[in-house]
Each structure stands twice: as structure tokens, then as C-alpha cells.
Amino acid sequence: MSVNLGKGQQISLSKSDGTALTSVRMGLGWQAAPRKGFLAKLTGAREIDLDASAVLFAAGQTTDVVFFQHLVSDDGSVRHTGDNLTGGAGTGGDDEAVLVDLARVPAHIDQIVFTVNSFTGQTFAQVQNAFCRLVDETTGAELARYTLTGGGDHTAQIMAKVHRSGGGWQMKAIGAPATGRTFQDLLPAITPHL
């Protein structure tokens, strides 16, 4: 059963039988909001390029990043499935995804922060049906979903993070708006959430 997370909510990443998850997928989906007015019929739907990134941290320092130009972490534990330049057709599936093999994440990595940014510069007011979700990659079961609601004039979002807690992992929905076209632009906005 999936949990619909609100900003700041946290869940433990363990299975119902108490065992730890070993592999998760952070999926991102979106559509361009329909254009309004007479010209909208002539110009058609706009293309919006949202990009999912995973920034790996050790003791508050960036150690690696996985995004559309660096699809696999240096240690191989985190993998981006590829860049989607336009968003979805309304089917509700993931347009971009980042796979995390939690069992392979090196012990010094204590947090992985997931971000989304509008590479083409449109604001979230021009995006609809955007979501970030966490899926048990072994079973396909959706564990948690964070919905981008309300649009806004920002071009990026610090979506969520997974972090070590005791002997396992937890996910925290962050949902903090930010401004930037790339993950590098977002690093100052990520720092308060570490």
C-alpha cells in the first residue's frame, strides 16, 4: 500500500515483514499544462524538459551525482534510466527514473537527495500531474508518492531524500521549491535539508 507523503513527512524503508528494502526506484512523471487561448490550438502542446537527479552525500559533502549526463554513480549503486525531453502523455508512468541499489551504496554515503529541475526554464505553473514516487524495485510495489501541487513560479524542486537511520534507510519528502536549470544550481538549496 502506497503512502501519499506531504512535505516533511518521513517513512521507514522496510518491507511489511520487517526486512530491509534492497533496491528502490525514484520515479518522476509530468505533463505540460495545456496552453490557453486561441493560439494554443495553432501551436499545440509545449515541450517541457524536467530532469531528475540524485545527489549523493557523505557527512554533508557532495561525493557524486547521477543525472542525464552522468547516468551511473562512480560506485555503480545508483543508476539513471535516461533523459526524457518532453514529459508524459498522461499515462501516469515514470518519465524518468533513478534506481538505487541500497545494499551496494558505500557505507560512507549517508544521504541521497532527489531533485527535479526544469532544464528548459519553464516554471512549475506550466507543469501538471507532476509526481515523485518511491517503488520497491524487486516487487514493483509503490511505497510512497509525493505530488507537486499548486504549480508556482519556481523552476526546480528538492523532492525527497533517502538517508541512513540505524541499520536501515528512511525516506523523507522535502518538497522545497528552488530555482535552477541544473542540479549544480540547486546545491545551495539542498544544504539546509541535509
TrEMBL record:
It comes from the Bacteria. It comes from Streptomyces violaceus. Residues 1-180 form the TerD domain. Gene3D superfamilies: sav2460 like domains. This is TerD family protein. Pfam families: TerD (PF02342). CDD domains: TerD_like. InterPro entries: Stress/Tellurium_Resist, TerD.
